[in-house]
Amino acid sequence: MKSNEMKMLMPLDIQMFANRVQYGLNNVHYAVLTRAADGSITYGKPVRIPGAVSITTSPTGGANNFYADNGIYYARNANTGYEGTLSIALIPEQFKIDVLGERIVNGMLAEFSDAKSNDIALLYEIEGDEEQDRLAYYDVTVARPNNNANTTGDTIEISPNELAITVKPRTSDKAIKAISNKTLDPDVFANFFTSVQEPVPTPTP
């Protein structure tokens, strides 16, 4: 058995997961996803989204129960990914171009009905009482945001922009998400926002 396969099969020490609580969202990045004709997926260089406020995702795909003998005879929970919301202070123009398919025309950033949007990998970091966790969703569809504007009163109230996101299993290998921290692998953690880190073993010669 190859060394990388041994590493995957070894049980993880419970001390590797030292955080008791998590808080704080930071370092949100997106990487544009490209699908080849054979179904394989590659990613562009991650780009930081400044002004991250919150990210919330809820699992999709419920329980499938088969009933027999007056009860649940067989049960299986389908995992189809997540749905949720990414809130940011202001959507960057480059994000609108790269992901939502808007185009600069005649000195304006314009939206067209035939715009081709791009799926992305979504990367971010959460603080913890012991160490940061860095998370990746590998196949994310982003919906067009609502447009909100409010008049200014006695105080200025800032409303973040909200993006509805759908996280899907990758068709190539069913990967949905992965978590990294310094204890699991310092190198993967250090390079997490340099390129999309794949949840597959590195081939050995």
Q: What's the number of extended β-strand segments?
A: 13
Overall average pLDDT: 84
Report the portion of residues in β strands.
35-45%
Gyration radius, in Å: 20 Å
The biggest sheet, with number of strands, parallel, antiparallel or mixed sense and barrel status, is: 9 strands, antiparallel
Count of DSSP H/I helices: 3
Shape: globular
Spans of at least 5 consecutive residues whose pLDDT stays below 50 are: 1-11
Question: Span from first to last CA?
Answer: 13 Å
Structural class: mainly beta
Order of helices and strands: HEEEEEEEHEEEEEEH
| Helicity level | under 10%
Structure description:
The chain is globular, with a radius of gyration of 20 Å. The protein is built from three helices and 13 strands; from the N terminus they run αβββββββαββββββα. The model is unreliable at 1-11 (pLDDT under 50). With 205 residues, it is mainly β. The strands form three sheets. Strands 1, 2, 3, 4, 7, 10, 11, 12 and 13 form a nine-stranded antiparallel sheet that branches. Strands 5-6 form a two-stranded antiparallel sheet. The chain has a two-stranded antiparallel ribbon with strand order 8-9.
Summarize the structure.
With 205 residues, this protein is mainly β. The chain contains three helices and 13 strands, in the order αβββββββαββββββα.
Overview features:
205 residues; mainly beta; 9% helix; globular
Write the layout of secondary structure elements.
Elements: H1 3-9, E1 22-35, E2 41-43, E3 47-48, E4 52-60, E5 63-68, E6 71-77, E7 81-88, H2 93-98, E8 103-105, E9 108-110, E10 120-128, E11 133-142, E12 161-167, E13 177-180, H3 186-190
Antiparallel strand pairs: 1-2, 1-3, 1-10, 4-7, 5-6, 7-12, 8-9, 10-11, 11-12, 11-13
